[in-house]
Design brief:
The chain is 54% helix and 5% strand. By secondary structure, it is mainly alpha-helical. The longest helix is centred in the middle third of the chain and has 28 residues, at 82-109. It binds glutathione. Glutathione binds next to helix 3.
Length: 202
C-alpha cells in the first residue's frame, strides 16, 4: 500500500504512527495535497490518502487508521468494546480538533500582518486549543495511557496534537498548565513510532 501525503501534515503523521505501531509495510509518497497523485486518488484532493494494493483509495485519516487497525489483529489500537471504542474515537476527535485549530492559526500567521484576521478570530480558535488541552489534561490525569491500561489510538491522537502544537506554534507555552500532558509527550517520544515520524524542522 502507498500513503500519499507530506511529512509535515499532522494528519499524515497520525496515520504513519499507526502504521509503525502496527508494523505494516507501506510506501510513503511525500507529496502535497495539490499534487497530481493525490488528485487522481482522492476526489477531495486531501492528504492523507491511502492507496491499497488493489488500487482502492481510503481517506480521511480517521478512516485510514481504522482500516489499518483492522488489517492486523495485534496490537489493537481501537478497543473492541463499544464504549471503549467510542472513547478512543472521542480522544481522536479531541486531538484532531486541536490540530485543526492550530493549522488555521499557523496558516494565518504566514500572511502579512496587516492582512491577518482580527483578534476575535484568533481568540475563538485559541479557545478551542485551550479547551481541548484542558479536557485531555483532566482525562489523562496521573495515568500512563489516555485510555485504560494500554497504548491505543487515544495516545496516538493526543501525542500527535501536542507534537504539532510544538512544531506549528512554538511560542505557545502549554506545558506549565498541563503537567500530565507534558509527561505524556515525553513518554510517547521514547517510542519508535513517534521518533521515526517526527517531521524535519520547518
Ligand atoms: N479531516 C481530514 C483533514 C485532512 C486535511 O485537512 N489535510 C490537509 C493537509 S494538513 C489538506 O489536505 N489540505 C488541502 C485541502 O484541504 O485542499 C483528515 O483527518 O484526513
Amino acid at each position: 500500500m502507498k500513503l500519499l501525503g507530506g511529512s509535515g501534515s499532522p494528519y499524515v503523521r497520525k496515520v504513519r504512527i499507526v502504521l509503525e505501531e502496527k508494523h505494516v509495510a507501506y510506501e510513503h509518497m511525500d507529496v502535497r495535497a495539490a499534487s497530481a497523485e493525490v488528485a487522481q486518488a482522492n476526489p477531495l484532493a486531501k492528504i492523507p490518502t491511502l492507496v491499497c494494493d488493489d488500487g482502492t483509495s481510503i481517506y480521511d485519516s480517521c478512516v485510514i487508521v481504522e482500516y489499518v487497525d483492522g488489517l492486523i489483529a495485534l496490537p489493537r489500537l481501537i478497543p473492541e468494546t463499544f464504549a471503549a471504542r467510542i472513547d478512543a474515537k472521542r480522544w481522536e476527535a479531541l486531538g484532531d480538533g486541536i490540530v485543526e485549530a492550530t493549522v488555521s492559526i499557523s496558516h494565518e500567521n504566514r500572511m502579512p500582518e496587516a492582512q491577518r484576521k482580527d483578534a476575535d478570530w484568533y481568540a475563538k480558535l485559541q479557545k478551542k486549543i485551550d479547551g481541548g488541552l484542558a479536557a485531555m489534561e483532566k482525562d489523562l490525569g496521573a495515568k500512563n495511557f489516555c485510555q485504560g491500561d494500554a497504548f491505543t489510538l487515544a495516545d496516538v491522537a493526543c501525542g500527535n496534537a501536542l507534537g504539532y502544537l510544538d512544531r506549528a506554534l512554538p511560542e505557545f507555552e502549554w506545558r506549565k498548565a498541563h503537567p500530565n500532558l507534558d509527561r505524556m509527550l515525553q513518554r510517547l517520544m521514547t517510542r519508535d513510532s513517534f521518533k521515526k515520524t517526527l517531521p524535519p524542522k520547518a
